[in-house]
Write the structure tokens for this entry.
Amino acid sequence: MYFFIVLQLLLYILLANQFKIKPAFAFFAILYSIAAIVARYLVPLEANADYGAYYYNYGNYMEDNIPFYVKIFKEPYLFYIKRLLEFFFRWEEVIPILYYFNFAISTLFFIWLASLKDVALWKKIFFYATYYFLIAFTLIRNGPAYMLVTVFFYYIQRGKVWYWGYAALLMHISSVMALATSFFKNDKVDLRFFIFAFGGVGIIAMFANLPIFSSLLLKYDSYSTSDRAISASHYIFFTIFNLVVFFIFYFNKKIVYTKIFVILYLLCVAFFIINPVMFFRFSIYAISFLSISPTYTITKLDRFLNRCVILTVLYFVYNFIGNHPDLR
């Protein structure tokens, strides 16, 4: 199993490095897809960290005893697909279908990511090694939202709007704040905007304990009794996240010193204060924004980091284990 997981990453590195040659890219895309399918087949569905939450605790959305302000935060995507499939299959059969469907669209998404010509190789591999198992193997509800918003951010950083990205609103409530950043132009931050953004995010943090907002935290607090509870790893991740942001700011201020990213970053900080797990799940929006930022000129630093992508093998395996605690 671990052989195919490592092989999958190595093939993805080759795939992401072959975007200039279409026949070679198609060849490695096929090889990568085969390796990914084999790995998916070998890893038991029930071993992933969120399987129990989906299988046993995925309640009905429209129960009469649920307050209205909680219902409005319920995303229809998974609920209606689940209900539709239940007309034809038992729930024991529906859950694998949902996982395999999510895996299929995730595979297409990461192949799309590998094909991008204006994104440095190391950015693609970093994003892939960090979030592949979370998106493709673990999350069947918010995974599609993460993918749609990533594509949305890709186009918005190039002066375009990909309207299909707003479909993420139907899939996970966290995408609301990420997509709301599109109301601002992706241009340089001035002092007045920074004060406005800091104040707005501060208000969100202050009102987080109100019932209408605290209902959102139930999704994250549920991890407190599981292997995904708040732990030192979340604080380490927050530290690394900030170091990466400052690293990019030092070498390429234009990427992080934009209105959209400043809001995303401040939201990440606010969510970390509220709940570190909430920060971890939301931070993917900020990291995806950085990961698909345009690379118009390959610098010496880019070349160096491109050569270092092979070092992500252990990190990739670590994330696999983190998303599959039952396999430890």
Q: What stands out?
A: The chain has 17 helices and no strands. The mean pLDDT is 82. The chain has one domain: 2-327. The radius of gyration is 20 Å.
